[in-house]
Every structure is written in C-alpha cells, then in structure tokens.
Write a structure and sequence with these properties.
The complex is a heterodimer of chains A (about 425) and B (about 90).
Chain A (H helix, E strand, L loop, with lengths): L3 E6 L5 E2 L14 E5 L1 H7 L2 H5 L32 E3 L1 H7 L4 E5 L10 H15 L3 E5 L3 H13 L2 E7 L4 H8 L4 E5 L3 H14 L3 E2 L5 H6 L2 H10 L7 E5 L4 H15 L9 E7 L4 H8 L24 H10 L4 E4 L1 H15 L5 H15 L9 E5 L8 H4 L12 H15 L2
Parallel strand pairs in A: 5-13, 6-7, 6-9, 7-8, 10-11, 10-13, 11-12
Antiparallel strand pairs in A: 1-2, 1-3, 4-5
Helix pairs in contact in A: 3-13, 4-5, 5-6, 9-10, 10-12, 11-12, 13-14
Chain B lengths: L1 E5 L13 E5 L3 H11 L3 H5 L10 E5 L2 E2 L15 E6 L6
Parallel strand pairs in B: 1-5
Antiparallel strand pairs in B: 1-2, 3-4, 3-5
The chains are: A alpha/beta (about 425), B alpha+beta (about 90).
Chain lengths: ~425, ~90
C-alpha cells in the first residue's frame, strides 16, 4: 500500500494524481495531499520519531516526499527549534504556564518558512523542475533563495518594491533573480499567478502549494513532542495567508488520530496587525466572508490583505473555541520589546504582533490564566531592525575614563530613580 | 464593451486552450453571461449554487480586485482587461 495517495480537493473531494497543481479544476477549491493514515499508522511511533534526526525530517512519515530512509533532498538541518518555557513573560502576562516556540532561530534563514520551503523544493526536485519561484514579503524570499542555491536550481523571487532593506539583502546574497514589483504583496501574488500560468516553474506558494503547506505541520509536531507528547490547551499564531494556523491544528489532529498524543482539545488563536487583519476581523464579526483590505502596517511579513486560507483560518479559530486579536503598530513594537526584555528573544514585527495579541487575549479573558499556552514566534528581529532605530538609543556616550564613567553611572541611576 | 479576459489554466479546457479570450459586456456580471454563451459550462465553474462568485476565485479589472470596486456590478469599458485568478497561498 502507498502512503501518499495523490491530491484531493478540500471542498468537493475530487481526487487528482500527485502533480504540480494546486486548485481543483472544477470548484477551484484548494488541493491537499491525501495520505493513507492506515499505512502511516503501521510504521510510525514515538521511538521511531525520537530516534530520527533533530530536524523536520524526523517526521518524514507525515510529509509528502518520496525519501529513502534517512535521506533528504534539500534542507537537511531545518527545524527542531527550541520550545522555551517562558517564565518571565508568563509573570509579566500573569499566566501560569507559557511557552515560546522559537523559529526565529530556524536553520538556515531564521524563520518558519524554512520548513515549508525544504518540503516544497524537495518536491519540485522530485517533479523534475529546474527553476523555483515565489511571491514573498521577505522571509519566504530568503528561504527560497537559500534552498534553491543548495539544490543548485535557478530561482525567480518576486517581492513588493517597498520591502525592508534587511530582507532584500538577506535574499540577494544567495544570488537568485530578484524582481521588485511596484505594488502590494497581493498585487505581486496576482502577477505571479499569471506568470506561473505562462512559465513552467515551480512556484512554491502556487503550483507546489499543496506540498509546501504541509511543511508547516512540523511546527505543530515539534510543539507536541517537546511538551512531552501532549498538545497545549492554547496556541497563538500570527496569520498572513492563514495557512500556518490551520496546519498546526492539523498536526495535533493527526498526532491524536495516530495515538501519538492523548485525546484533548487545543484552542487556536489568530494574531494579526490592526492595519492588515482580515482574518481576525472575520473571527470578531463571526462571518465566513472575507473582506480583503489594503495593508497599512509595520508588520510587513503579515501584510497580506487577501489571504488565500483566510476562510480556513477563521474556521479553525471558531471550531476550536479560539479567537483572534489585532495589534496596533505601537503595540507591535511593545510586543517585540517585551519578548526581548523578558526572555532575551529578538523577534521581527510579526512576533511583536503575536505577543501583543496574546496579551490582549489574556487580559480580555479569552485565554484562561491557568492553562498551558504556546505562542508562535516565527521570524527573526535582525531582519527588520528598521522599526526600532527611531525608538531606541544608546544610554550614554563617554570618553574612556573611569572617573567619567563613575559620573555617568551616577547620572543614569539618578535619572532612572534607582 | 469589448474586453480581454485572461483565463487561468484550470478553465482552459472550456476555452479550447486559449489563455486569453475576447468578450462583450457592460459589467463583470454581464461578462460571466457572455462567457457562458461563448464557452458553455464556464458559468457553473465561476459561480456557486447561490449565483455568487466562488470563494476561491478572484476577479480583477485592470489589476484591481473587484471586491475593492463594485463586485459583480463593476462596470466595464472597451479595452478593459479582466483576469480570473484562483486564490493563492500566502508567502510571508
């Protein structure tokens, strides 16, 4: 029996053979990888996973690649990032048990996108493509450029022209062809849909999407394994296209179905910026109709005004008893600084959104204070320091003299009232 | 009004494999009717049972999402370009 059965429409259930397609020809619903869980169930076990490599590939049984035992196509060290018990942040937020799943240190490009890209490019290689492409707000661009370099494949990367300089340089260094498009991410994405129709390239977030999106499940598997094979009661996830929150939920569902974690319930919460929060707006209004928005936020990595998985993200939050919260730009910065000064973790603006939304969800009573909470930190602050330059400054500049330092220290202490 | 319509791959089996077709319509709603006349079966693929544009399809008139315009009532003028594009996963 085969572990992978092909693709299946999430809406109408039509089946398709495994191939680089992403929408149902009939109803345009998204296609998903169709697994035979009976076959997977015969093989998979906690010891088998635990004896695997410290990377996403320890969960290869649940990923849509044809890999020989112990082999990888590309991205061999991706994933298995730290899950930190965040006691200081928990104190600050007034909760008992809080964890940070820290993908700001994911290998090799410091965001959770390495998970999806390693799977997508592996699959593109299986399909025999020689060119990889993507539309990106930055993190995906970094990861596609890096993994394409490793795979020795050409890459075309499309970004909005106003992207942060840090994310442009951290893409260019891998020598892709970088195309800056004068428009929003949603406009870049629409262009790419038409480019993808014309050129036979592997667009990781278009025709390879069913495989690509499965890589996000590893974020959920790791949370459960690192908690000692249990799922947390509450998970707060930043939302852009809306895929990650649905895939973390799917990961827990699969682990429960396969008997790898106990039965239980995990509520999923969506975090978005107020300046681009169409999914959270759906949740708050309790409507399954997505109204696209024109993004206006410092959280550029979440600035997708027309999220393809918005409907499913809304459903996951609603069906699991979760909720969603918006963060204003100022709250996003405070969130970044709060995580840094309590846990020593420097995340990008998207992480600031997650921390700020978590605080609001706790303060409003949506998330109870006495149950395990995991917050998803998915990107690294070093890529987007721009937002902090105007807000942070050196405390004092002095000559190299002990006497001068003594005086400066006294001044600083009197100023801060210590 | 004569407009140019870009057809995505999954629908080209209905447009005799043409990636671009001509149509005549005063609005996006009209356009769907005209496409159905020219290429029978297309309407059912674009609209759901309630007659609304399917959840996973986006229409653009001259690069603008019709949900930022007047939806199916969005007016068309000669020379306009209409793109029909399936929803795409995010790439943050």
């Amino acid at each position: 029996m085969e572990r992978l059965k092909g693709l299946k429409c999430r809406e109408c259930g039509r089946n398709y053979p495994s191939s680089p397609i992403h929408v149902c020809e009939f109803c345009f619903g998204p296609l998903e990888v169709d697994y035979d869980y009976a076959v997977i169930g015969e093989q998979i076990s906690r010891p088998r996973i635990e004896s695997g490599p410290p990377s996403i590939w320890r969960y290869a049984d649940l990923l849509p690649l044809d890999l020989a035992e112990g082999e990888t196509h590309v991205g061999q060290a991706v994933g298995f990032t730290p899950l930190i018990r965040a006691r200081n942040l928990a104190d600050e937020l007034g909760v008992r048990e809080l964890y940070v799943k820290n993908d700001s240190v994911c290998h090799p490009t410091w965001s959770f996108k390495d998970r999806v890209v390693a799977v997508a490019i592996g699959k593109a290689k299986e399909f025999g493509f020689d060119t990889i492409a993507c539309a990106s707000t930055g993190n995906l661009a970094n990861s596609v450029a890096a993994h394409s370099a490793e795979a020795r494949l050409k890459s075309y990367i499309f970004i909005p022209a106003d992207l942060e300089r840090g994310k442009v340089i951290t893409t260019l260094v891998y020598d892709p062809t970088l195309v800056a498009v004068e428009g929003t991410y949603d406009e870049v994405n629409r262009l790419c849909a038409e480019v993808g129709d014309k050129y036979r390239w592997a667009f990781v977030n278009i025709n390879i999407r069913p495989y690509y999106a499965e890589g996000s499940k590893t974020y959920g598997y790791e949370i459960a394994e690192q908690l000692g094979w249990r799922a947390p009661a509450h998970v707060v996830v930043p939302c852009a296209g809306g895929s990650l929150i649905t895939k973390i939920h799917k990961a827990f569902k699969e682990l429960r179905m396969l008997g790898l974690i106990p039965e239980g319930k995990t509520s999923m919460y969506a975090a978005q910026a107020a300046g681009c929060g169409p999914i959270v707006t759906m949740i708050k209004k309790d409507t399954d109709v997505l109204e696209p928005v024109r993004p206006n936020t410092i959280a550029k990595s979440l600035a997708i005004g027309n999220p393809a998985d918005g409907y499913y993200a809304y459903r996951v939050a609603k069906d699991t008893g979760g909720y969603g919260e918006h963060a204003q730009d100022e709250e996003i910065i405070e969130g970044m600084q709060l995580l840094a000064r309590t846990e020593g973790i420097f995340t990008e603006t998207a992480g600031g959104v997650t921390v700020a939304a978590t605080r609001k969800l706790i303060e409003s009573g949506r998330i109870p204070r006495d149950e395990p909470i995991v917050i998803c930190i998915t990107g690294n602050g070093l890529k987007t320091p721009d937002v902090l330059y105007d807000r942070l400054s050196v405390d004092v500049t002095i000559r190299p003299s002990l006497a001068v330092f003594d005086q400066a220290l006294a001044d600083l202490k009197s100023k801060s009232g210590i | 009004m004569a407009v140019l319509v870009r057809i995505p791959t999954p629908l080209r089996s209905l447009t005799r494999n043409q990636a671009e077709v001509q149509a005549t319509a005063d609005s996006v709603g009209d356009l769907i009717e005209d496409l159905e006349k020219q290429y029978p079966g297309l309407k059912e693929r674009l609209l759901d049972e309630g007659g609304e544009v399917r959840r996973f399809i986006n229409f653009y008139v001259n690069e603008e999402d019709i949900r930022f315009l007047q939806g199916a009532k969005t007016a068309l003028k000669t020379g306009d370009q209409v793109s029909i594009v399936p929803a795409i996963a995010g790439g943050s």
